[in-house]
Amino acid sequence: MNVSNRRDICIAASEVISRDPTNATFDNIVEYVIKKAPNAKGAVVFASETDVRWLLEAVKRANKTKHFIMIGSDDWGTKHNAVETQEKSAEGAITLLPARTPDKGFDSYFTSLNPLNHTNFWFKQFWERTFHCSFNIRAKREEASFRPTAQTSITRCTGMEVFTPEVYEQEGKVAFVIDATYALAHALHRMQRDLCNGTDGMCSAVTQGVDGKMYLDYLKEVAFKGSSGEVRFNKDGDRPGSYDLYQYQRIKNNYKYVPIGSWRSGNLTLKTSDLRWGEKSPNNMIPASVCSLPCAHGHIRKKREGDECCWVCTKCEYQQYRHDEWTCRNCTQGTLPDENRTGCDDIFIEYLHWSSPWAIVPVVMSILGILSTLYVIAVFVYYNDTPVIRASGRELCYVLLVGILLTFITPFTIISRPSTFTCCLRRIILGLSVVISYSALFTKTNRVYRIFNSGKRSVKRPRYTSPRSQLVICSLLVSVQVIGVVVWLVLVPPQTEKHYPSRSKVILDCSVTDFATSLSLAYAMLLVLLCTLYAFMTRKMPENFNEAKFIAFTMYTTCIMWSAFIPIYLGTSATDYKIQQMLLCLSIIISAIVTLGCIFAPKVYIVVLAPHKNKKPTGTMVMNSRVRSACGSAENTCRPNGEMKTRPVLTTAPTSNTTSSGIEFDFKAAGSGSDDEQTHLNRQDLPSTDV
């Protein structure tokens, strides 16, 4: 077994044949070997001729005549008795015999013998078996009556049958028996010569007893040319190995042992072209004999308990590749085993692609929003000096439109492939676009509230209500967000990172948490709440000043939408990232659509589709008591935004039907002759008047 291990030959199962075996003994051996190593077909047999025959019979009873390829020892050799009637089980078996040269003198002597001149009892049995005859036919027939399968056609032996090459072949070990006898004789002769000082005969040193160890030493030194070749022994008392190899083959309808090679002094010579495996390998390929089959891709060998030879194949885990035949190793994060499980490949990195259904809807809505915003800007620029545009607070409207336009652009930064640039741009524009929009709305609602509220307490014009002041206030509000974003970018530089929600999924995203994203919108949410507060406080303004109502509706809708968005956005962080990003895009798009539709749709409608309403009145009108309550007594003239002149000049004239929806008041401040400092308020900005 040690020799086989050095040759990388594994012994899958080893069984010992008991001294007095039965058929059950051999049946159990065959069953055990097949069960333990079903793919091991080579069976090395060290057994006597009788045991070999019984083993072949057990193989036949197990219906495994095509399974085993036997390798027999020299005790099997080329003996026909071992395989008689078990030819199918033994077909393809490889046996060996010590290399020999038939002794011609023995052949001459043995073939001259016959039962008539040789009285040895066993010789008659040999003669009957060799020539298939019997000296006692009656006894043979009585024996055959109890064995129906035996041959019943029996001839009488005459004793004069002739040995022919077909029925006689010298036993393979005859030459070795002859050489063994000569070796003993040579050793004894040399010992006698040494002990008796070269004299003939038996001296007292010999007759008084010979030490066996001494005789063994003489035997090891023997060397001569014998019948089987050169005879000599090594220090262990073994003769150098020299064997002839045979294979039991079927040639036409006969079975015989065919020489296939030899082994001389450690060198093997094998004629593979002469090998024949019969039914055990129909294509005549050398049958494979393995303890366990090689493992498939992605499987490793795992030895069974108590078995150092065979193994079972175990599949590597989903995230593992086969490092070697016995070891699985985990792939690094972001990789998975390749198709053959011999290494790891990078996992396809996911992010929200433009072609994704989750991105198409926000992109289409953003494009439509951008086109609509650009159209409104174009209308405002083209009709910049018309009454409706002038009375709407052009400066803040342009700021508001820029904020809405940036809001519609924001989804493109969210959907774009994450990179350092897009992540930086996303941080800047996400909160800034919303802040610009609601800073303009907050400034506008705050101005309207202060104008009407101050008129109840004083006739003095509120401070910081001029267009320039409004732009400064709006810029200051926006600068808070800008400063916050700059500090954020400095403290936490934008970068991308890979998320691993599962072992088989890699998501590329900007390195920012959901909490940080929500925090970046916190200031915008504060502006939304303030705008909503002022919109609520101006809800009872005269109905003709309906822009406040549009702003109020815008803010109510925005508050409801963002109140629902924030918990949903944070709640979907553990689900699909595509849903979360789509929700963020839709939320900012809808808020922009609501602002654009509620604030600017009525103005665009009047300017484009109802131009007859976009005209100045034909005369200056007298203010009613509600104007007086807002701007002071009727004896004074309001300056822009409520400030009073000391000497009023008021006249009346009939109003034009074309300005029923947009009556305009012109208040000039004392000492001012510039139209840029005029404040034009239509019914959307000041209380209604009676002529």
From TrEMBL:
Q: Which SUPFAM superfamilies match?
A: Periplasmic binding protein-like I
Alphabetically, the GO molecular function entries are: adenylate cyclase inhibiting G protein-coupled glutamate receptor activity
Biological process terms in GO annotation: G protein-coupled glutamate receptor signaling pathway; regulation of synaptic transmission, glutamatergic
Identify this protein by name.
Answer: G-protein coupled receptors family 3 profile domain-containing protein
Name the Pfam families for this protein.
Answer: 7tm_3, ANF_receptor, NCD3G
Q: What residues form the membrane-spanning segments? A: 358-384, 396-416, 428-449, 470-491, 521-538, 550-569, 581-606
Give GO cellular component annotations, separated by semicolons.
plasma membrane
What UniProt keywords apply to this chain's record, in alphabetical order? Cell membrane, G-protein coupled receptor, Glycoprotein, Membrane, Receptor, Transducer, Transmembrane, Transmembrane helix
- How does this chain sit within the bilayer? Multi-pass membrane protein
Instruction: Check the record and name the InterPro entries matching this protein.
Output: ANF_lig-bd_rcpt, GPCR_3, GPCR_3_9-Cys_dom, GPCR_3_9-Cys_sf, GPCR_3_C, GPCR_3_CS, GPCR_3_mtglu_rcpt, mGluR
Q: Which CDD domains match?
A: 7tmC_mGluRs_group2_3
State the residue spans of region: Disordered: 633-691
- Can you tell me which family this protein belongs to? Belongs to the G-protein coupled receptor 3 family.
Q: Where is the composition biased (Polar residues)?
A: 652-662
Natural source organism: Strongylocentrotus purpuratus
Where in the numbering of this chain does the G-protein coupled receptors family 3 profile domain appear? 358-614
The entry's localization annotation reads: Cell membrane
Keyword Transmembrane helix found: yes
Q: Which domain of life is it from?
A: Eukaryota
